[in-house]
């Protein structure tokens, strides 16, 4: 059982596998680096022993008589490394003395060998095979045959010159370049491995978060897929179970409240019938007003619960088309609405539900304030619909409560205007199931301004599950 569980897709297994693959890849890259790295993979010149050899030959030649110096230089030469000594009055010595050298190469050569040679030289110059002095008659190195040849010219105390020529380069970068290269390589590899490892661990979590957002947007959607590592599968299964329990609770609550509201119609009808037998017309009128108000509350509650129970499918809809339809509907009632915004803009949503939201907001403005104006602004990640009237607005201490169930402002607490305080609550519920939000505020120039903010794509919906009412 333990062996089988090890082969399951888990976060631990993904992490261990990623680290193991990174280590194996690192070993493989190191082997390839040493095999094909060229100068990069070769040891530093200070680690090859070449400088110590040059320093030793230089001290021997300096101590030897001038007559035997050429033989010593010839004896110390090998196939890949040559020593040549030139007298102070020779033509080659004059060329070495007057030649032009690269200051960087000279400084680098001085830094790496001066401490080994000591004070046995007047000057030292480093140059490469492309320097004209490398083609002097007594030096004459073929640049095509030895393109990486390097030279060190040391002027001894008596004015003579010792030229050390490394025809084949078998050392790597100097320690500064090597340190910079190693740091850059390690940094690039660490970043690459970290990105791969984090992606392997974060992708399933991102997928789960996306599925949860979609499930919160559409409670009747399919269960969240239980994919990815075993731990995330357990999370998805737990969320699905919790989601099923919430749906059952909401369905039972909705059914119960709808049944209660429906059953209230019968006693209300009986009350109205009995009221017909009341002789006092004033008391009868009061009773009928109370019955009508209760009937309106029951009808509003039934409508609210009916909207809660019916789930319209999400689709791509045309927001300007919905708003223009509302403008035309009110124009048939001789109510002229002003619309400003694009002619066409698509959004994900439930078109009939959104139409109910905007119609409700416009009707509230017409009833309690003035004919409002509609404005649509489309942004990269969201669409903002603004409904603004020019009425008295809402007191600041009440503006945060207008979306609460059965809440009505002081100016709307009368039976003639109708409404029981569920319209804005229903609008808020619909907008939240779209992953959006509603904001209400008093405009500085007067009137109430309500903004409905809808995300443009499902991936932009906020990570939340909305509990209606």
TrEMBL record:
Its EC number is 2.7.13.3. It is an enzyme of class 2 (transferase). PANTHER family: SENSOR HISTIDINE KINASE ENVZ (PTHR44936:SF5), SENSOR PROTEIN CREC (PTHR44936). Residues 199-251 form the HAMP domain. It is found in: Cell inner membrane. Pfam families: HAMP (PF00672), HATPase_c (PF02518), HisKA (PF00512). The chain crosses the membrane at residues 15-36, 179-197. Gene3D superfamilies: 1.10.287.130, Histidine kinase-like ATPase, C-terminal domain. Residues 259-458 form the Histidine kinase domain. InterPro entries: 2C_sensor_his_kinase (IPR050980), HAMP_dom (IPR003660), HATPase_C_sf (IPR036890), HATPase_dom (IPR003594), His_kinase_dom (IPR005467), HisK_dim/P_dom (IPR003661), HisK_dim/P_sf (IPR036097), Sig_transdc_His_kin-like_C (IPR004358). The keyword Translocase does not apply. This is histidine kinase. It is a multi-pass membrane protein. Coiled coil: none annotated. It catalyses: ATP + protein L-histidine = ADP + protein N-phospho-L-histidine. Keywords: ATP-binding, Cell inner membrane, Cell membrane, Kinase, Membrane, Nucleotide-binding, Phosphoprotein, Transferase, Transmembrane, Transmembrane helix, Two-component regulatory system. Its main location: membrane.
């Amino acid at each position: 059982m333990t062996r089988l569980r090890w082969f399951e897709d888990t976060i631990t297994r993904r992490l261990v596998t990623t680290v193991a693959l990174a280590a194996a890849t690192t070993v493989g890259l190191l082997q390839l680096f040493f095999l094909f790295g060229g100068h990069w993979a070769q040891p530093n010149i200070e680690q090859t022993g070449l400088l110590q050899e040059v320093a030793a030959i230089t001290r021997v030649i300096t101590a030897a008589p001038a007559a035997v110096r050429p033989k010593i230089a010839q004896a110390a030469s090998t196939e890949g490394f040559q020593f040549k000594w030139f007298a102070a009055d020779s033509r080659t010595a004059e060329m070495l003395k007057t030649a032009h050298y690269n200051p960087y190469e000279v400084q680098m050569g001085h830094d790496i060998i001066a401490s080994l040679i000591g004070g046995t030289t007047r000057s030292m110059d480093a140059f490469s095979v492309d320097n004209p002095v490398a083609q002097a008659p007594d030096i004459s190195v073929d640049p095509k045959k030895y393109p990486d040849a390097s030279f060190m010219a040391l002027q001894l105390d008596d004015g003579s010159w010792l030229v050390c020529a490394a025809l084949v380069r078998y050392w790597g970068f100097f320690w500064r370049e090597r340190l910079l290269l190693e740091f850059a390589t390690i940094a690039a590899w660490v970043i690459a491995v970290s990105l791969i490892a984090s992606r392997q661990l974060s992708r399933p979590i991102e997928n789960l978060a996306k599925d949860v957002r979609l499930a919160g947007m559409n409670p009747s959607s399919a269960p969240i897929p239980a994919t990815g590592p075993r731990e995330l599968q357990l999370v998805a299964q737990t969320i699905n179970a919790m989601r099923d329990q919430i749906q059952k609770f909401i369905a039972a609550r909705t059914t119960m409240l709808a049944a209660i509201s429906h059953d209230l119609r019968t006693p209300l009808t009986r009350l109205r019938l009995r009221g017909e037998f009341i002789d006092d017309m004033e008391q009868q009128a009061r009773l009928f007003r109370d019955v009508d108000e209760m009937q309106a509350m029951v009808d509003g509650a039934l409508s609210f619960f009916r909207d809660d129970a019916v789930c319209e499918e999400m689709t791509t809809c045309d927001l300007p088309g919905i708003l223009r339809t509302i403008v035309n509907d009110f124009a048939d009632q001789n109510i002229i609405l002003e619309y400003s915004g694009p002619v066409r803009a698509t959004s994900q949503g439930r078109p009939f539900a959104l139409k109910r939201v905007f119609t409700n907001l416009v009707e509230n403005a017409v009833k309690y304030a003035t004919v409002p104006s509609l404005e649509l602004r489309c942004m990269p990640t969201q669409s903002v619909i603004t409904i603004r009237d020019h009425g008295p607005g809402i007191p600041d201490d009440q503006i945060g409560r207008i979306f609460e169930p059965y809440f009505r402002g002081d100016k709307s607490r009368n039976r003639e205007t109708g409404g029981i305080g569920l319209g804005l609550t229903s609008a808020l519920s619909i907008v939240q199931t779209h992953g959006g939000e509603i904001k209400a505020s008093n405009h500085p120039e007067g009137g109430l301004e309500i903004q409905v903010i809808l995300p443009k794509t499902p991936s932009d919906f906020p990570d939340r599950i909305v509990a209606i009412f």
